[in-house]
Specification:
This is DUF6152 family protein. The chain is an alpha+beta fold and about 130 residues long. The chain has helices at about 15-30, 80-85, and strands spanning about 45-55, 60-65, 70-75, 95-105, 110-120, 125.
Length: about 130
C-alpha cells in the first residue's frame, strides 16, 4: 500500500452546505419569477372581490373571487412596481371590489392572470405603465 504524504484537502461539510445554500438563493428568484411568456398576448380583464392580498416578492398576488364563484390569482409586478404605482396591502382589504386588466395564463385550467392595471374601488394602479 502506498500512502501519500500530503492527502488531498477536504472542504468542511459546513462550507459545502453554505455553497449549496448560496446556489439555491441565487436560483430562487429565477425559479419564482412570473415572466410574461406563460401568459397570452390577448388583452384580458376580470372583476370580483378581494379574498386576500400578499404584495411580497418576487411578485404580489391578489386572490379575487369572480362572479361565478371561482378564485383567481391576480399576479402583480414586483414590489418596486407596486410601490411606484402607490399600491399597498391596505388598499386591498378583503371584500373590496376590483377589476384587473392584463393577460390570462396560457393554461385554460389555471385561473391566473398577469396584471398591468388594477382598479380598486375608483382608484386605478398602473403596475406596468409601459405596457398599458
Amino acid at each position: 500500500m502506498h500512502f501519500a504524504s500530503n492527502p488531498p484537502r477536504r472542504r468542511p461539510l459546513a462550507a459545502g452546505l453554505g455553497l449549496l445554500a448560496l446556489g439555491w438563493a441565487a436560483a430562487a428568484p429565477a425559479l419564482a419569477h412570473h415572466g410574461w411568456s406563460g401568459y397570452g398576448s390577448e388583452e384580458f380583464s376580470m372583476s370580483g372581490t378581494v379574498q386576500s392580498a400578499n404584495l411580497g416578492g418576487p411578485h404580489g398576488v391578489v386572490r379575487v373571487l369572480d362572479g361565478n364563484g371561482r378564485v383567481w390569482d391576480v399576479v402583480l409586478g414586483p414590489p418596486r412596481n407596486q410601490s411606484r404605482a402607490g399600491l399597498t396591502e391596505a388598499a386591498l382589504p378583503a371584500g373590496a371590489a376590483v377589476t384587473a386588466w392584463g393577460h390570462r395564463h396560457l393554461d385554460p385550467n389555471r385561473l391566473e392572470m398577469k396584471t398591468e392595471r388594477l382598479r380598486v374601488g375608483t382608484t386605478v394602479f398602473d403596475i406596468y405603465p409601459d405596457r398599458s
